[in-house]
């Protein structure tokens, strides 16, 4: 006669709690040299970069807020944010989230892990949380380090906003923090796409490349003359929409839409990765990615989400077309000019004036009025007019504008020389940068005419 | 008193799409037994080990592990440990860190989990603080075994644990498995190395194309009525050849595929005829310096049974 072992001690094995799995995954991630190097780089390199640039005579004026890096320490973290949104954050998401599942395939450790944890669900949650934690640590490093570098090397001065108004240091700090927080949403979307690629494509390097490829595609899309609804419906828009925090009033609607779209992408891509992961057969030694299922379960729902989001944004928002219209361009240029004129007045120790007294206005044309007066391009020309108390003749100044598809523009002063035609001002204390010579601004795409 | 079964499997079938990996497999493993699983590539060994570890669930049949019916994946009871398809190790961690992480994952205090003890058992104390990245295959196998030992298993499931082991490593692993079995742990191991199985296992199951073609004690397998080739090294090879030719039931084999050696004779015989040849040699004053099967009885049986199975398909 035989009997199977059965005593009081035999119970079904307990599944390992997520908290322990999370710690296990963190240990594995942090033990990797590349992750350690990334953490170190994210916490040190921005400070060194911002401090270094702050000491140079040439500033990265082609980057948003780059031209103000000598003026305030708060410009540094924003320059870093512009750079990070294009390059660093997609790469960080890729290296951390894009490899967190594929690494187990590469090392052949899935069965070991499953025997230890006994729950694919908990493994998924633990891995996702661990990669999220590391990504948050890296993003925090970029933000804190950039700010620290700027504050130490340049100082805690007011920041010139995108419409030329001055933000007090405290206000600037709060908005810099908000801008970085807003950039977390598209970073999470990219991280979720990384998770999806890592689950769906197994040990294939394509899984690792997916977040940068998606980010590149989103960047390219933002350069194209797409309708506003399509632009806002893409998960990468929040990497740009933080610009609206630095105008007065803040352009909140595009930012909220961008953040919401990114978060929906993050949730959907994570859920799809979860479903693909749970359907995987871990006893199949020949497994090398979900193959066709990756397209049906992974790609199609995201394509459907994009189409659905475009439709929702198109119906819910007032703007149509490119969102860059003549009226809005004129308003943005006139507003920024007025704010910056006051700054120039202070630098030259002239009698103070207010924006209301200046009553600035701009008359802008595109292609000398030969083409449709809307859309991106470097063929915008504006003539700004303003009044001064006690001066009977209004002043005028000319600007050439280069407006990109996302609504951002660079206004390049074309004279007169004593107002905006030269990059330096001769003040009583020496030469100083002329704030009216070149300035950045942006056109809010969603505002109706 | 009855025999306690750590594994009781009846009619286990498992398919992957159109491929039948296991086809009505029965398996009994008692406590304290080291049970070998043998079969050619694709026979279903790894699938069966995966079922025992709870990585998958059978499509049909009944499986009880440590007295607990297993009906769902990842439902194996407490006390089952091991690895299939190689041990899972993280190369960026040291041997000790790998074990500590596993201990903490299971809720144990890494300081009191017995990490030093299991490292000592598998002979890895000297490299405990080296990264697993630089470990040889044999060292990884031993660390995988140490990880399994850390859980104090009552059923240990090992897939090719002897791969890459040097003689010292093999001695450590054999010693550990023998001690575990002596303490009542059931061990199921698959291996292509018949010498290991013969040294360790009291029973074996031979699988071919997903079916059990033999299951039982090694002695039963060796005692099957089949001729084997034996290497006979003597002090006088020519006399030995003459005596072999004159002994009933003995055939001298000149193309046995063994290394050419003037002192060596290869004969094919049943055990009784071989006994008679040895007696004849001794009576004739020819010293017998070596007598061993060219391939082990288990290997011969394995080849016979699997070839029959292949021929019958």
From TrEMBL, chain A:
Tell me which UniProt keywords the record has, alphabetically. Membrane, Transmembrane, Transmembrane helix
Is Membrane found in the keyword set? yes
Organism, by scientific name, is Streptomyces guryensis
- Secretion signal, residue range per the UniProt entry: none
Q: Which PANTHER family match?
A: INTEGRAL MEMBRANE PROTEIN-RELATED, MEMBRANE PROTEIN
Q: Does the keyword tRNA processing apply?
A: no
- What's the protein name? ABC transporter permease
Give the top-rank taxon of the lineage listed in the UniProt record for this protein. Answer: Bacteria
Q: What is the lineage of its organism?
A: Bacteria, Bacillati, Actinomycetota, Actinomycetes, Kitasatosporales
Which parts of the chain span the membrane according to its record? 33-54, 74-103, 124-152, 172-196, 208-232, 252-277, 297-316
From TrEMBL, chain B:
- Give every ABC transporter domain span: 7-234
Q: Which UniProt keywords apply?
A: ATP-binding, Nucleotide-binding, Transport
Protein name per the record: ABC transporter ATP-binding protein
Organism name: Streptomyces guryensis
Q: Which InterPro entries match?
A: AAA+_ATPase (IPR003593), ABC_transporter-like_ATP-bd (IPR003439), ABC_transporter-like_CS (IPR017871), P-loop_NTPase (IPR027417)
Q: Which domain of life is it from?
A: Bacteria
Database matches in SUPFAM superfamilies? P-loop containing nucleoside triphosphate hydrolases
UniProt lists the family membership as follows: Belongs to the ABC transporter superfamily.
Molecular function (GO) terms for this protein are:
ATP binding; ATP hydrolysis activity
The record's annotation in Pfam families points to: ABC_tran
């Amino acid at each position: 006669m035989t009997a199977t072992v059965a005593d009081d001690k035999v119970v079904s094995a307990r599944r390992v709690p997520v908290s322990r799995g999370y710690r296990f995954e963190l240990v594995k991630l942090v033990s990797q040299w590349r992750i350690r190097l990334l953490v170190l780089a994210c916490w040190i390199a921005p400070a060194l970069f911002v401090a270094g640039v702050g000491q140079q005579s040439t500033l990265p004026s082609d980057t948003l807020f780059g031209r103000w890096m000598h003026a305030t320490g708060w410009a540094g973290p924003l320059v870093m944010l512009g750079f990070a949104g294009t390059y660093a954050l997609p790469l960080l998401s890729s290296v951390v989230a894009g490899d967190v599942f594929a690494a187990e395939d590469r090392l052949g450790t899935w069965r070991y892990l499953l025997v230890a944890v006994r729950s694919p669900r908990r493994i998924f949650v633990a891995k996702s949380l661990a990669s999220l934690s590391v990504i948050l640590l890296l993003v925090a490093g970029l933000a804190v380090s950039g700010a620290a570098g700027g504050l130490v090397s340049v100082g805690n001065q007011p920041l010139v906003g995108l419409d030329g108004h001055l933000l007090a240091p405290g206000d600037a700090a709060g908005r810099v923090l908000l801008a970085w927080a807003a950039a977390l949403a598209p970073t999470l979307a990219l991280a979720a796409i990384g998770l999806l690629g890592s689950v769906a494509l197994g040990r294939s390097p394509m899984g690792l490349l997916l977040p940068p490829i998606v980010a590149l595609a989103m960047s390219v899309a933002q350069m194209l003359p797409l309708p506003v609804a399509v632009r806002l419906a893409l998960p990468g828009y929040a990497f740009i929409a933080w610009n609206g925090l630095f105008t007065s009033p803040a352009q909140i609607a595009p930012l909220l839409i961008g953040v919401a779209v990114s978060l929906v992408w993050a949730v959907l891509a994570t859920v799809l990765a979860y479903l693909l992961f749970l359907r995987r057969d871990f006893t199949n030694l020949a497994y090398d990615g979900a193959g066709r299922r990756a397209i049906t379960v992974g790609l199609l729902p995201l394509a459907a989400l994009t189409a659905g989001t475009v439709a929702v944004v198109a119906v819910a928002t007032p703007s149509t077309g490119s969102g860059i219209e003549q009226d809005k361009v004129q308003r943005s240029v006139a507003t920024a000019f007025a704010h910056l004129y006051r700054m120039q007045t202070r630098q030259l120790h002239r009698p103070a004036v207010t924006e209301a007294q200046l009553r600035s206005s701009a008359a802008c044309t595109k292609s000398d009025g030969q083409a449709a007066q809307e859309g991106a391009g470097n063929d915008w020309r504006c003539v700004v007019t303003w009044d001064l108390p006690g001066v009977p003749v209004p002043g005028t100044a000319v600007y050439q504008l280069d407006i990109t598809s996302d609504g951002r523009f660079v206004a390049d002063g074309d004279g007169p020389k004593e107002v905006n035609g030269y990059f330096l001002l001769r003040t009583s204390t020496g030469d100083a940068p002329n704030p009216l010579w070149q300035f950045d601004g942006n056109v809010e795409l969603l505002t109706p005419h | 008193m009855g025999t306690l079964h750590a594994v009781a499997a009846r009619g286990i079938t498992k398919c992957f799409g159109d491929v039948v990996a296991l086809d009505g497999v029965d398996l009994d493993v008692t406590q304290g037994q080291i049970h070998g699983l043998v079969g050619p590539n694709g026979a279903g060994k790894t699938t069966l080990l995966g079922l025992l570890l709870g990585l998958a669930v059978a499509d049909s049949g009944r499986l009880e592990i440590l007295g607990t019916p297993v009906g769902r994946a990842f439902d194996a009871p407490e006390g089952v440990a091991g690895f299939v398809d190689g041990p899972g190790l993280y190369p960026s961690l040291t041997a000790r860190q790998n074990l500590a992480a596993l201990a903490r994952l299971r809720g144990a205090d890494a300081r009191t989990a017995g990490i030093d003890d299991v490292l000592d058992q598998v002979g890895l104390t000297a490299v405990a603080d080296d990264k697993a990245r630089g470990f040889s295959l044999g060292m990884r196998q031993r660390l995988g075994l140490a990880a399994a030992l850390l859980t104090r298993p009552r059923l240990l499931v090992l897939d090719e644990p002897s791969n890459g082991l040097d003689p010292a490593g093999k001695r450590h692993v054999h010693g550990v498995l023998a001690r575990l079995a002596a303490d009542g742990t059931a061990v199921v191991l698959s291996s292509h190395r018949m010498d290991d199985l013969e040294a360790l296992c009291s029973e074996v199951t031979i699988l071919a194309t997903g079916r059990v073609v033999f299951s039982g004690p090694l002695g039963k397998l060796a005692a099957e009525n089949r001729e084997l080739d034996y290497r006979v090294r003597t002090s006088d090879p020519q006399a030995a050849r003459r005596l072999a030719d004159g002994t009933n039931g003995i055939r001298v084999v000149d193309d046995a595929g063994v290394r050419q050696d003037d002192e060596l004779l290869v004969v094919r015989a049943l055990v009784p005829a071989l006994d008679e040849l040895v007696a004849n040699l001794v009576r004739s004053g020819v010293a017998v310096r070596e007598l061993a099967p060219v391939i082990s009885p288990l290997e011969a049986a394995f080849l016979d049974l699997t070839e029959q199975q292949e021929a019958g398909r």
